Amino acid sequence: MQPQPASLDEKTNRYRVMLECALEDIEISIGEKSYMAGVADDYLNMARSYFNDGVHFVEKEDLVNALVCFSYGHAWLDAGVRLGVFTVSEDKLFAI
Tens of pLDDT along 26-67? Predict the structure, then answer.
């Protein structure tokens, strides 16, 4: 018997929580005067913006767009971790 796929509601909530936890765990690891500090700021701002947009879509009951936003937001954080501009303590939240 095949496992049942997650419902859209469950998956959206799971990705929202994952992004929220990831945002709380991220630390910028680049000095303020480094060019890469601007990259870190941009990545973090993108992740926060996608999180806020996702919350907006949840409130509008548009779970497809909410899930997309939470996924994209997390991708910005993953990219920053892999690039080395962020450090994290919860490795399981990231693709590292």
Answer: 999 988 888 899 999 999 999 999 999 999 999 999 999 999
Segments forming the whole domain that contains residue 55: 27-93
Whether 76 contacts 14, CB under 8 Å: no
CB 1, CB 60: distance < 8 Å: no
Token pair belonging to 85: 């501009």
Q: Judge whether 21 lies within some domain.
A: no
| 89 within some domain | yes
Domain assignment of residue 46, yes or no:
yes
Domain count, the chain: 1
The helix (H) or strand (E) run that includes residue 49 is helix 35-59
- pTM for the model: 0.89
Which CATH number does the domain housing residue 42 bear? 1.20.1270
CB of 15 closer than 8 Å to CB of 74: yes
Report the distance separating Cα 67 and Cα 58, nearest Å.
9
